[in-house]
Amino acid sequence: MDEFLFGLAVATLLFTTVVFLTFWNANRRMPRIRDMDLPPDDWPAPTVSIIVAARNEERHVEDAVNTLLEIDYPAVDLLVVDDRSTDSTGAILDRLSARDERVNVVHIAELPAGWLGKNHALQFGSERAAGEYLLFTDADIMFESSMLRRSVFYAQSEGIDHLTAAPDTRVPGFFLNSFVATFTIFFSAYFRPWKASDPRSKCFVGIGAFNLVRRDVYEAIDGHRPIAMRPDDDVKLGKLIKMNGYRQQFVLGLDTLTVPWYGSIGELIVGLEKNAFAATDYRLSLVIFGTSVMLIANVWPFLGVFATGGWTRWLNLTTSLILISCCWNSARNLKQSGLCGLGFPVAVLMFIYIQWRSTLLVLTRRGIRWRDTFYPIDELRANRI
Q: Is the pTM of this model over 0.90?
């Protein structure tokens, strides 16, 4: 047993070191919207249609729409699709539209069969948009005024068909911030977004906060129809675009794009229940494998510091410090306190709990109940790309 634990400690240390160096190097080279050039005054800006899907977003939708109205882009139209909201979202949007004619609001009363609500709302909005570029964004995203000019100019100059950006994620409290930093690490490890721009790589990515797509590309992939029943519509939109041979780029929207994410751990747990199992394409085997790797590689080293001795203990301690450093680096990149790195092992256990909760709920309910609508698991599983 001692030899096994020593070998495990060596393997975990090597694996963790490689991952840390990969993330550190990739993040250092990642483009940031705030660093992109502003276009010249005589730039013929292509038209952009901003499409927002909103359902029961009364907490943030007014602030989000107001930031969209402050965007200094010269050729933009804004379409907000109210997807069967049961709170005051619709009334808020109507008031904003009455105050400012640039806010075009469409209310959806019924959801057609074979569609998730958000995906249908985005498709519905795209069919009523006229822009050369379509920007799909969520109803709680706050925009800095110049970020659209910078990003569209960058996409056009670089010949990018799909530009997607990660936002600043704002949450209260130590453990939620630790979770966000840890979630970013796992998301990066799973999708390797820095490889999305490589045409030789199969890696793809998409972020619901900011998916900027050339209109002709969106129409060529048949829009959201191929992913009508995907809860992870943002990343699957990215996959559709990449698998059809179009150019894709992931950038960081720090200081230019902000989302006030979940306000409590309870909201976080409920909020991710529709996505966690979907991310594995509803494969129980992948859930078992993934969470086992997390326990062995990300939790055991911390326990091993106390449960082992000699060189094995020192190896586990070194691995634990590297994991904390990785989370510290992730937190600092997200403009959080580096101390959030200390919460890494707890955040990993939270992640595992959320993954298994989502899995078991979907399997026992035989589907997903999300925002008052039930989506059967057979239909969800059938929509695989």
A: yes
